């Protein structure tokens, strides 16, 4: 493989992918009520090196003026300079049973016309739940994962997405979630991949383990488990979720578009043959200064202009066939061609859309 193609390809091909292997019930189901909770907030990132919002972003100016007013500093929003500050939306996924004082990661995304929010500092931002109540606060340094944006009069270079970043452990829970597991009368399991046979298998394994018909498969997605009187619900839920069933592992492709990372797990199959055409168009724009000087003693002025030259180079498209039914062989062929990570992502998605790729694709 060519080292110039920078992407992470993880192939985990093990016995786990074949039929008849044991997995725990907790890997195949979700527990109703035990879920991730989405929080959102509006904040300001400061400390940027001239890459923040411009003066045309009015809400940033007003936000900074209001923030300073709370600190006893009164200033007209029109007098605020925002090159070193940017308005951002802050989002977070609060884990189930999160308690006061727990920390979590938050994602920060530019709301205005900031060019780069990397290495800035997010000022304390309240995070709201769907009910409009504050469940946490976020604050800390923003990391864009190596993204940057540099520009001058001659051009601009951008890597990844410098207007989106993460504050690691930047969120803190201020209020417990309104969910009490001890009040539940039964355990409701929802399958991640609806399947009648799998739901019945979960039902039978649970009933066999406890020696009672306490589990009932309602449909292809839902299995209801009644708590045994006198038995601790938490202990019983732990026993149920740790039971093992026979199942197949679904091959998965995880794509991180911001970083161009592709992670593949399982022995992913494709319906061969596959014909792929790949070509690139390169555009180069060069600016050359042109100076015009008047004759001596003419009284004229020296004039400087720019000559712009645009060059377009189109690489001939290449069509090749893959006879192997394994996606691994296709990726190796594309890598030998020098395909970039983003082109690889586009090709994989296109093959999936044609119905030739048998795997689940997760885009993050």
Description:
It is a single chain. With 364 residues, the protein is an alpha+beta fold. The protein folds into four domains: 80 residues, Alpha-Beta Complex (Aspartate Aminotransferase, domain 1); 137 residues, no CATH class; 76 residues, no CATH class; 30 residues, no CATH class. It has five helices and 24 strands. Strands 4-5-6-11-8-7 form a six-stranded antiparallel barrel. A four-stranded mixed β-sheet has the order 1-17-16-24, with helices on one face. Strands 3-12-14-13 form a four-stranded antiparallel β-sheet, covered by helices on one side. A hairpin with a 4-residue loop joins strand 13 and strand 14. The longest helix is centred in the middle third of the chain and has 15 residues. It is flat, with a radius of gyration of 28 Å.
Could you write a compact summary of the structure shown?
The chain has 364 residues and is an alpha+beta fold. It is 17% helix and 39% strand. The chain folds into four domains: 22-33 and 180-247, Alpha-Beta Complex (Aspartate Aminotransferase, domain 1); 37-173, no CATH class; 252-279 and 316-363, no CATH class; 284-313, no CATH class.
Indicate the structural class: alpha+beta
Specify the number of helices.
Answer: 5
User: Strand share of the residues?
Assistant: 35-45%
Total domains, how many?
4
The helical percent reads 10-25%
Radius of gyration: 28 Å
DSSP E strands, number: 24
Major β-sheet strand ordering: 4-5-6-11-8-7
Residue-averaged pLDDT, rounded?
Answer: 78
